[in-house]
UniProtKB/TrEMBL annotation:
It comes from Streptomyces luteogriseus. Its EC number is 4.2.1.40. It comes from the Bacteria. Its cofactor is Mg(2+). It is an enzyme of class 4 (lyase). This is glucarate dehydratase. Residues 164-258 form the Mandelate racemase/muconate lactonizing enzyme C-terminal domain. The lineage of its organism: Bacteria, Bacillati, Actinomycetota, Actinomycetes, Kitasatosporales. It catalyses: D-glucarate = 5-dehydro-4-deoxy-D-glucarate + H2O.
Length: 416
């Protein structure tokens, strides 16, 4: 029994390359931040976790690391409760506390799986599919990060995408490289009519393949209603056109297609009002803040009860997160849509040993090795940690970075 106790939680902040992807807040910086967790047990078993970066959440993970020492790794409910209790006095938002507890829960499950010799999907009730479908995540983007403060420009092999033709070309590349069979466009960047044109161009280029558009609350209720009508028959769902449960409920009244969210329903207490007001029809779950993989499985059951369809949200991430997303998606019977992933944009810098996770035919095969089934590349972890230290970057600032090139740029939500 003592060998299953937690000896240490090693928390390592990292930075990895990210292209200039545009969104309603500005543009992605050349580096994205994450945190890698290594949960070390008394017997030397190590469970892995990955979470979003930034100094605030990093400090919370350090606080969590102190709280979990000596606890039994199979007692993951108690482990997350202990972390929650430590954060509660200073972090009132359950959504915010969820970012910390979730990352540690995943590391617990990875360690449990390794001890038992079983994949994490087995610990979640077993997989109902052997491969998980993902959508191509399209972004308007610049051809390169412009030269800045003596740093040379940073290009990539995706090229520019600033109009419908550029988006269709990016979608073709995504399909060619990874075989995606559904497409999501991150909108909220250009005036709505331009984004409507991009979706129509995608529909023409990829007939019959599911499409979705996510402007990250860049629109008013009126604009959202207009776009929804214009895109009738084109979208499988429209994601977060406008802010708040109330706003989404207004749009939903007249929307010809389902509305989805990863913005107005991000904690358990948001579910009741959203269901009561019929604000959303598709919930984009994310194990990184809903409490981990078991809680995500439970969330899927709640969605089933209230006839909410289920899809999955993503943020810039690496392979430990992709493995966790794949295991939980494999164990959810009512996964109704392909999952989002940023992985093609960031995978070149991955922190895991290559070979297990492959995006092929628009799917990732569920790893069958013990735990998450992925192995940490320690040399790469060290390199990415050095990059974090040397960069001096301590948080994501898409708006500030945009202003370096367009000083008049203003963060305005809704913008249209
Ligand atoms: O990477 O720019 C981005 C996305 O906008 C991301 O930050 C969102 O969290 O992809 C996400 C979404 O679906 O809202
Ligand atoms: Mg979204």
């Amino acid at each position: 029994m003592s060998s299953t106790r937690i000896r240490e939680l090693i928390v390592t902040p990292i930075a990895f390359g990210d292209p200039p992807l545009l969104n309603s807040n500005g543009v992605h910086e050349p580096l994205a931040l994450r945190v890698i967790l290594q949960l070390v047990l008394e017997d030397g078993t190590v469970g892995l976790g990955e979470s979003t970066g930034g100094i605030v959440r990093l400090e919370r993970l350090h606080a969590a690391a102190k709280a979990v020492v000596g606890m039994d790794v199979f007692d993951s409910t108690a482990v997350t409760a202990a972390i929650d209790a430590v954060l509660l006095p200073t972090v009132p938002s359950s959504h915010e506390r969820g970012w910390t507890t979730s990352a540690v829960e995943v590391a617990c499950l990875d360690a449990q799986g390794k001890l038992l010799g079983r994949p994490v999907s087995d610990l979640l009730g077993g997989r109902v599919r052997d491969a998980v479908p993902f959508a191509a995540y399209l972004f308007y983007k610049w051809a390169e990060h412009p030269a800045l403060d003596g740093r040379a420009a940073i290009g990539d092999d995706w090229g520019e995408a600033l109009d419908p033709a550029g988006i269709v070309e990016q979608a073709r590349l995504m399909q060619e490289r990874y075989g995606f069979r559904s497409f999501k466009l991150k909108g909220g960047v250009f005036p709505p009519d331009e984004e409507i044109a991009a979706m129509r161009a995608l529909a023409q280029a990829f007939p019959g393949q599911p499409l979705r558009l996510d402007p990250n609350v860049a629109w008013t209720v009126e604009t959202s209603t207009y776009v929804a009508r214009e895109l009738e028959g084109v979208l499988e769902y429209l994601e977060d056109p406008t802010k708040t449960i109330e706003g989404m409920a207004e749009v939903a009244k007249d929307s010809p297609m389902p509305l989805a969210t990863n913005m107005c329903v991000v904690a358990w207490e948001h579910l009741k009002p959203a269901v009561e007001r019929h604000a959303v029809q598709v919930l984009l779950t994310d194990h990184h803040y809903w409490g981990g993989l078991r809680r995500t499985r439970e969330l899927a059951a709640v969605c089933e009860a209230f006839e909410l369809a289920l899809s999955m949200h993503s943020n810039s991430h690496l392979g430990i997160s992709l493995a966790a997303m794949t295991h939980v998606a494999a164990a959810i019977p009512n996964l109704d849509h392909s999952c989002d992933t940023h992985y093609p944009w960031n995978s070149a810098d991955d922190v895991i040993v290559p070979g297990v996770l492959e995006l092929r035919d628009g799917e990732v095969k569920v790893p069958t090795g013990p735990g998450l089934g992925v192995e940490l590349d320690h040399a790469q972890l060290e390199r990415l940690h050095r990059r974090y230290v040397d960069s001096g970057m301590r948080g994501r600032d898409d708006t500030g970075y945009m202003r370096r090139f367009q000083p008049e740029y203003e963060l305005k939500l809704p913008r249209w």
